[in-house]
Amino acid sequence: MDITLQPITIRELVNGFSNNEEEGVVGYGGLLNIRPKYQREFVYSENQQIEVINSIFKGFPLNVMYWCKNADGTFEMLDGQQRTLSICAFYVGNLFVNVEGTLKAFHNLTPSQKDTFLNTTLQIYICENGTDTEKLDWFRIINIAGEKLTNQELLNAVYAGPWVTSLKKRFAKTNCVAQQMASDYLSGSPIRQAYVEIVLKWISKNDVEHYMALHQQDTDSDIEWQYFQDVIHWVQKLFPVKRVKLMKGLPWGTYYNTYKDLVLKSSELEERIKALVDDDEVENKKGIYEYLLSGDERCLGLRAFSPKIAQKVYEKQQGFCAKCGQHFEISAMEADHIVPWSKGGLTVEENCQMLCRHCNRTKSAS
Question: Is the distance from CB of 127 to CB of 78 less than 8 angstroms?
Answer without folding.
Answer: yes
